[in-house]
Amino acid sequence: MQLGMIGLGRMGGNIVRRIVRDGHTAVGYERKSANIEELRAELGERFQGTTDLREFVAALETPRVVWVMIPAGATGAVIAEVAELLEPGDIVIDGGNSRYHDDIRRAEELKPKGIHYVDIGTSGGVFGLDRGFCLMIGGEPEPVAHLDPLLKSIAPGVDAAPRTPGRTGEPTPAEQGYLHCGPAGAGHFVKMVHNGIEYGAMAAYAEGLNILHKADYGLSHSGEFSAEETPLEHPEHYRYRIDVPEVTEVWRRGSVVASWLLDLTAAALHADPNLDSFGGRVSDSGEGRWTLDAAIDTGVPAPVLAAALFGRFSSRGESLYADKVLSAMRKAFGGHNELPRA
Amino acid sequence: MQLGMIGLGRMGGNIVRRIVRDGHTAVGYERKSANIEELRAELGERFQGTTDLREFVAALETPRVVWVMIPAGATGAVIAEVAELLEPGDIVIDGGNSRYHDDIRRAEELKPKGIHYVDIGTSGGVFGLDRGFCLMIGGEPEPVAHLDPLLKSIAPGVDAAPRTPGRTGEPTPAEQGYLHCGPAGAGHFVKMVHNGIEYGAMAAYAEGLNILHKADYGLSHSGEFSAEETPLEHPEHYRYRIDVPEVTEVWRRGSVVASWLLDLTAAALHADPNLDSFGGRVSDSGEGRWTLDAAIDTGVPAPVLAAALFGRFSSRGESLYADKVLSAMRKAFGGHNELPRA
Amino acid sequence: MQLGMIGLGRMGGNIVRRIVRDGHTAVGYERKSANIEELRAELGERFQGTTDLREFVAALETPRVVWVMIPAGATGAVIAEVAELLEPGDIVIDGGNSRYHDDIRRAEELKPKGIHYVDIGTSGGVFGLDRGFCLMIGGEPEPVAHLDPLLKSIAPGVDAAPRTPGRTGEPTPAEQGYLHCGPAGAGHFVKMVHNGIEYGAMAAYAEGLNILHKADYGLSHSGEFSAEETPLEHPEHYRYRIDVPEVTEVWRRGSVVASWLLDLTAAALHADPNLDSFGGRVSDSGEGRWTLDAAIDTGVPAPVLAAALFGRFSSRGESLYADKVLSAMRKAFGGHNELPRA
Amino acid sequence: MQLGMIGLGRMGGNIVRRIVRDGHTAVGYERKSANIEELRAELGERFQGTTDLREFVAALETPRVVWVMIPAGATGAVIAEVAELLEPGDIVIDGGNSRYHDDIRRAEELKPKGIHYVDIGTSGGVFGLDRGFCLMIGGEPEPVAHLDPLLKSIAPGVDAAPRTPGRTGEPTPAEQGYLHCGPAGAGHFVKMVHNGIEYGAMAAYAEGLNILHKADYGLSHSGEFSAEETPLEHPEHYRYRIDVPEVTEVWRRGSVVASWLLDLTAAALHADPNLDSFGGRVSDSGEGRWTLDAAIDTGVPAPVLAAALFGRFSSRGESLYADKVLSAMRKAFGGHNELPRA
């Protein structure tokens, strides 16, 4: 089968690599030729690339399959541009990190032209080339079914994890790592929640490791204290110098918190045991926010996911004004002066 | 009636002032003479002071009433020292910010000597001299009853707030601003929870004002964004330049969030509209932590109080290690580099 | 000055009462005549009412001032209807609980007709008639200035609170209880954040009182425990039977947490000490959600406000599915059975 | 090597099985004989068991290795009892879920007798027999080193997970699934934080799945609403019927949130897609609370772990009083009546 890919960066390029390696062919489009040439050199004839959008569309067999894999902010304009060149029955896929609201709208906009719109949330990051990508898919049943051979090649496959007890017979698509989640937007919706969970789980590890990191607190803080500091009632309880990198390693085998995120954390801590190469300003790329928005809209309590998101905001200094308000209040009612900066 | 006061700092001195002004007499003890001389000059003969603990005890009428008003860390030693000089029937009061666990223990220790132990949580801060102090009291009924004339003078009195609808007849002590909450430790327990609530309410204001402070976000952040930043979907919703000091002022009259904390906030923002005199490192003095400990012990959900406490920790940089862990994870699975420091 | 009021329920009726009592006149409109008749009987000639919208508009002096005070869901349609009957220079006020997004849109829609749109967030609840209403106002400067005499009558006035230290001279509008916060939507934006803070502060009290309520935990839970329950390490720390209604009363005078919300809580607990008349399903009316949405959009950490909102969701059973997931996980990895329902 | 095991329940029995299968011998003690007989039948001569503690001790080679694997509440008494029968140089292991405070104290108490105390936090649950147990160990270096052959047999071994990139040469103990974390208590300290993280990660999944579960909210809630309910601004965004069991399955392969907890969740949801066999009352067994206590003591922000813990408390109805307070406040200031029970 043939795939057209717009955007040949890390994600788009690796998806192309997976399908070509699995026997399919691909046509790539990008404004600049560097990635095109690299893929051509690597994949040979089963890949062709072009910097001309019309050429790209012309090179595709009908019904065309056009996967757009570019930053979310640019996706709308590119889809509109390519849709002008497509015909009824063609399929456009947004595989990036768009908000699912946009999918719902775009699917409606393309429907009168007979163009099918499919949204695919893609997880796997820089490891996707080898591990395969987990695919969460939204759209009408027919075009999604049409894509099945490609999806199977991109996804990790059933062997990527032990089979869930109780599941027998032919593996479902979910067991192979791709799932048709519902109509337009459902793929990005599920991917969005996936990332919301990711933020929460990451924060759970980070908070716990911070507690281990501070387990030597009683060695430096004895029972003395100023009026502005809370005394440590039992300094003898905090006299551990925990080797945090080794702890993350030991938890990888046999423990309840074993996970791929923990694997990565153990690797990162092995490479940089004190995390000196990081400053602690943590970005968020939207999905965590949108997950919270969805929780709020539907009345679902999500205190853990919210705390994780707000922790990222705070890491970037966004609590500063609020903290100043607190200091101002404390000074006003109690005459408390702030502690000096450490 | 006569009160013995150990510790003549801001809090102890103002309590002495209130009772002497109300017709009682006081004997003060402190190691240095400066505060003693100041109070003597101000209050005249109804106040005597000494830097000799034996003289202090000798000057008190029996049953002696000894109020200890010094930093929590020093209270235990001073109570032990003065208790050596006291007689059965005397009353020792811890009016500071001790943890109530210490009250339970100390009351047990003093019981064999026939000395009554009373713990009094005191709220009112630097305004207590004029407004009166809110008193939360723990101890046996008899000694607490014995203290009633003094407590009445220290507390704000019924006129400090409109009477609660439905309350008629002789005002209860609670309506006058002092309350016997239960046996030893109950006073500091209630004061502890009071401060826990205080942290939560303060944080509610601080977070809300921070949102107002950022209401101009859409003026500086249009719809563009990098892959590491979340776009603002509707910049037109965030084009307000809110005058935060004026907002705190308007809320003081007629709104649901009117409070004494808001009064103080409005004053602080009037004096320093941009809070330039504050750095945002917020201390905590123990009660917020102990309130959380109590919630955890008794299985009571306290997410708001916890968030308020943890916000203070974070304001002092204590999230840094956790934030670095998050950055390390993001780099590991997604190749994301951190945003540069602003 | 004259005010036209659409909606004569509790809020609209009380605003009419305040302005008429202060010397202004009012024209009221409502579909049914009951409230009209009641106000007429009470206020006499300075109030006229009608169930006919055209009559209502005709009775107003130009430039007309039309205050719409109806549930947020119906406001849009009514404003559209009345706007058809208005002329350039007239002023429409939305005094309800609309989302500020709607204000921004409506102001744009009415601008071509020359009709001024003003949004007023109103706080004060059932006590506003006597205490006055706190008014947060958005709109263009001229129409807002035109409304000044009415706003002054509706607001509580400067005497409603002690003057903030450092403020001298003629009181500002904020000191009288009303504030022009910015362009269209700014009034409802500030009111929204006000309610967000309200949720947070309410939850702070509620959590703290719950801890007091459980302070007798050690009397019923000694050190024994099952494998599914956490033992209480120090039952002797939780042997207090706290009189929660009296605690709320004592905090009203002299304490740092004194507030109007606390006044109301003390009254409610005096009337119903065990809160037997309540079931604990807590509604939220939108502002708390929208405050969170604004925090998320602008990257402001709001963990306390979020926890307060999510607590309300949970009170209505919305955590149930998540809790079942947790139970399923615990059973899966540890063989833990759920505790039976109490 | 030989191991003495006190407590032959699920955990103790499976540890015995693992070491005997790996070539060691074991002596078991339990008050009742059922488990002893079962293990004897299964393991043959390399296992002996007794219901007599003196016989148990007598059957052990010196230096004796006595692993106590019983509920935390009973551990202290049993260790005291067996210690009376031991000799200098013997080793007592607490492998249960004791609080690490107890380890610090017990190690001190046994030191004068020359008995070594080792605490081992054990993770692995019901799957430990096959997967191996993750072991977190506290104690003096010599006795821990002496135990090495046994620990190696109990732990999962290096093949249980892919080797962390950058780790070469002879695998460290951590890579084999056991780690000497520090002096007495360090094992249970690390296990405690492990469980705190577990609570947080579990809650992250549970909240996210709840959002997926409610993704059909717009199908039942259109834009209408009462004054006590928040309208859904965009019902068209919530029209998905997500197959939550299939989503957990698809995430197992290639996604960032793949984990052992997710594997278990997918299995649980496959077996009971609507979780009908669960009521949603979630226990906590202490470690989550103690993790929070440690965070509070050392000033580490742990909002995610706290939210997870408090969610469990709330699932058991412990928010009820607080929720009633909120309802009472809402009624007091706004005249709001509670929503009826669903």
Fold and architecture overview:
The structure is a homotetramer of 342-residue chains. Chain A has 342 residues and is α/β, with parallel strands linked by helices. Chain A has 2 domains: 2-184, 3-Layer(aba) Sandwich (Rossmann fold); 193-242 and 279-334, Orthogonal Bundle (N-(1-d-carboxylethyl)-l-norvaline Dehydrogenase, domain 2), CATH 1.10.1040. In chain A, 48% of the residues lie in helices and 12% in strands. Chain A has 16 helices and 8 strands. Chain A has helices spanning 10-21, 34-43, 53-58, 72-83, 100-110, 128-131, 141-146, 148-154, 173-176, 186-213, 217-220, 244-251, 260-271, 287-298, 303-315, 320-334; strands at 2-6, 25-29, 47-50, 65-68, 91-94, 116-123, 134-138, 178-182. An 8-stranded mixed β-sheet of chain A has the order 3-2-1-4-5-6-7-8, with helices on both faces. In chain A, helix 10 packs across helix 14 and helix 12 runs antiparallel to helix 13. Chain A starts with a strand and ends in an 8-residue tail after the last helix. The mean pLDDT of chain A is 95. Chains in contact: A-B, A-C, A-D, B-C, B-D, C-D. At the B-C interface, helix 5, strand 7, helix 9, strand 8 and helix 10 of B face helix 5, strand 7, helix 9, strand 8 and helix 10 of C.
Which pair of protein chains has the largest interface, and what are the residue counts? B-C, 109 and 110 residues
CATH class of the largest domain in chain A: Alpha Beta
How many domains is the backbone of chain A divided into? 2
Query: Which superfamily, in CATH terms, is the homologous superfamily of the largest domain in chain A?
Result: NAD(P)-binding Rossmann-like Domain
User: Spatial order of the strands in the main sheet of chain A?
Assistant: 3-2-1-4-5-6-7-8
Largest sheet of chain A: 8 strands, mixed
Which shape of chain A, going by the Cα principal axes?
Answer: elongated
Tally the helices of chain A: 16
Q: What order do the helices and strands of chain A follow? A: EHEHEHEHEHEHEHHHEHHHHHHH
Instruction: Based on the coordinates given, report the CATH architecture of the largest domain in chain A.
Output: 3-Layer(aba) Sandwich
Oligomer: homotetramer
How far the N terminus sits from the C terminus of chain A, by CA atoms, comes to: 62 Å
Regions with little confidence, pLDDT below 50 for 5+ residues of chain A: none
Strand content of chain A: 5-15%
Report the strand count of chain A. 8
Structural classification of chain A: alpha/beta
Q: Any idea of the CATH topology of the largest domain in chain A?
A: Rossmann fold
Compute the CA-based radius of gyration of chain A: 25 Å
